[in-house]
Structures are given as C-alpha cells and as structure tokens.
Design brief:
Blueprint: E1 2-8, H1 21-31, E2 35-42, H2 46-59, E3 62-66, H3 77-84, E4 89-91, H4 93-106, E5 119-121, E6 125-127, E7 136-142, E8 145-150, H5 154-172, E9 177-185, H6 190-201, E10 208-214, E11 217-226, H7 229-247, E12 251-253, H8 259-270, E13 274-278, H9 284-290, E14 299-304, H10 308-315, H11 330-344, E15 348-354, E16 368-374, E17 379-385, H12 390-410
Parallel strand pairs: 1-2, 1-3, 3-8, 13-14, 13-15
Antiparallel strand pairs: 4-5, 6-7, 7-8, 9-11, 9-12, 10-11, 15-16, 16-17
Length: about 425
Amino acid sequence: MNAEIIAVGSEMLTPQRTDTNSLWLTAELNGLGIEVVAKIIVGDDRARLTETIADATRRSELVILTGGLGPTEDDLTRECVAGATHRQLQFSQPLLDDLLARFTRLGRAMAENNKRQAYLIEGAEALPNPNGSAPGQWLRLAPDRHIALLPGPPREMKPLYTAQVGPRLAALIPPQHIRVLTFRIAGMGESDVDSLVAPVYSQYKNPVTTILAKPGDVELDFRARCNTVEEADALLAEVGAKVEALLGERIYSRDGAPLEAATGALLRARKATLAVAESCTGGLLAERISSVPGSSEYFDGGFVVYSRGLKHALLGIPSEEIAGPLVYGEAAAKSLAEATRLRAGSHYAIAITGVAGPGPDEGFEPGHVVVAVASGAKTVARTLTLFGDRGRIRFMATQSALDLLRRTFLLPAL
C-alpha cells in the first residue's frame, strides 16, 4: 500500500511553522510496511485543496489529511474531501451531543460555529478525539482506497492515529516491514558516488536507493520492503556489502550518524583525546564535536585564535611564522595543531586556518582553507579550495578536518 499525506493550513506555509505531523506519520506508516510516496502542504484554499485531494485519491490507496477540522470558516478539510469524492456532508446529532458534553465538562458554553464539527462526510465513520473538539473521520472509497482525516495539533493527532487509524490499517494490509540502511560518505561528491555505486543499486528494484547530497557529505539510503524483518535485513546486507566493497573507508557512518559522532566513536574506542584550534571557523568545529552526548570522554576543548596576536599569545606560535600570507599556509596550520596538542595534553589536535569570506585576504580568495592534524608521531596538513558562501565554507572546513583525522589517524589502528 502506498500513501500520501496532506497537511492543511496556510500557517504551515510561513517560516514560523513546520509540518512535524508528516514526519511522525511517515514513521508509523513505514512500521506497517506502507510506503509514503508524497507529502503535500496546502493552504486554506478551497479549490486548491479539493483538487489536491482528488489527485491524491486517484494516485494512492491511502490518503491522510491533518488539520483543517476546526470550527472556523477557514477549516475546509471536511468540505474539500466531500467535494473531491462527490459526497455530501451530513449532520450527526451524536457528534453534536458529544461536543456539547465536552464543553459542559470544561465549564464553557459552546460557540455556534463549533456545530461545523458535527458534520460527517457521507459514508464516513467518526473517529473519537478525547483530546480535542475535532473528531477525525475514516472514509472507505473502495476496497483498496481509504481516506483518514486527522486533527492538526500533534497532541490530538498522535493519540487519535494510534487508537483509531493504525489498527484499521493493520487489519487491511498483509504484514510487511520496511527497513533502512544508511551510509554516509565523506570526501566524494554526489556524482562521483553515484557513478561508482550505480552499477550495484540499479540491479535492484527492492531495496529502493536514494542519494542525498549535503555540504561535504553524501548520504546513501537503501529502503527494503519485505514480508519479514529477516528478509529485509538480508536484502540490505547483500546490497550493503557490495557498496561497501566499492566505497571502503569513505563510508564514515552506517547508521546515519553525523561525522562528528562517527569520529568521536573512533576516539572513544581508542581511548584517545582531542583538542582543536580554530581561526576562520570560529568555534564551529568545537561546537560540532561537543554536541555529541558523551563527548567529554574524548574532547578536551579548544582555542578560538582568530587574530595573529592570540595565535602567538595563547599557543606560542612565533610571529614570523604567521606574518602576512604565511598565516594561511600549511606550515602555520601544522604549528597550530602541534602547539594545541602540547598545550592541551591531548593525543590528537586539529587546526583550521583560512579565508571564509566574503572578501579575499592576504591575496587568498574565500574558500582557501588549510586543515592540519597532529599526533605525537606525525603532523599532516591539507590545503583545500572550498566553494560557497561563508557559512558553507566554514562547515566544509570542519567536515574536511574531521575526515582528515578519521582517515589518517584513527582507521588504521582499529
């Protein structure tokens, strides 16, 4: 069974509101083996919403709507579902009685417009909502076509789905299980990853493969849908092994964890500690590392040494080594990393220096970044040419620095 989710409400088309219901519903539906093939947000526009519902019911076996079940004139979901399915709205005295009883329990008089919530779509079944005044509705269009109307507030929508909709769906479909394997890859672009692994995943219709590109990061998602968890896991293991053979150490995570968490896990496994020195990233690397729960086991801390004066005063870098354009060179980055390791007493240290923009400095264009990693045995540095705005350059610098530590120092010993 495939499903579409329609979130209703003009407020979710503003920057201030986010549709979180669809994310939660997707997880619940996937747990039943139902694939969500589309998510749509529609404002409070009668014609547009009616058209969207009609299109969704033609495409998918299940359509779930959230929101638009309130008592006001802009709560249009009931009317639009009725229009899209060519049905009438029918007044329900039992629903009105339930509404009146609810307001009585709350010690409030019911407004006249709340009576709008006592109308059912012809042929629909009311879904009791103990947490709000808007009942849900369940409508069977055909043996294999259904619509569920759910309230918008998550505190109402979630328990109503769990109590009323989830059991109905479980009874409709044969047991299926969706399992996901996620690889995250550093050091390669999206097109390079796809060129390398497409000959593998293109052989399979199940699992379905999705490639997502982010700054300094490519995510490979494999989604298997099978009758049993064991079948799905076996299929993912088969495909995953072939892809791992091609990508090797470029895969830094096999469970969706970000690079800072994956690198931290390697440090923890080695019982090693890390310190950082940051110039152009201004503390972003330390923030990423310390955002991981339990990072105090391996992260000693760091220095934000933006100016040449602090590089000299806090870390003891000789002024002549960081004069003029030298501050953006590999020698300066190595000195920063080595001094940081010694000052912090850590096993490893990372240093980042460069030009984040928006303008050039000392003859270097924005995106010129040098990262260095020091251990007691050796120090390595890499000069990078990064592209994008200031924020992207700074993030890419931290991503490259973490990957340099991971691949150069942490992997061979594990």
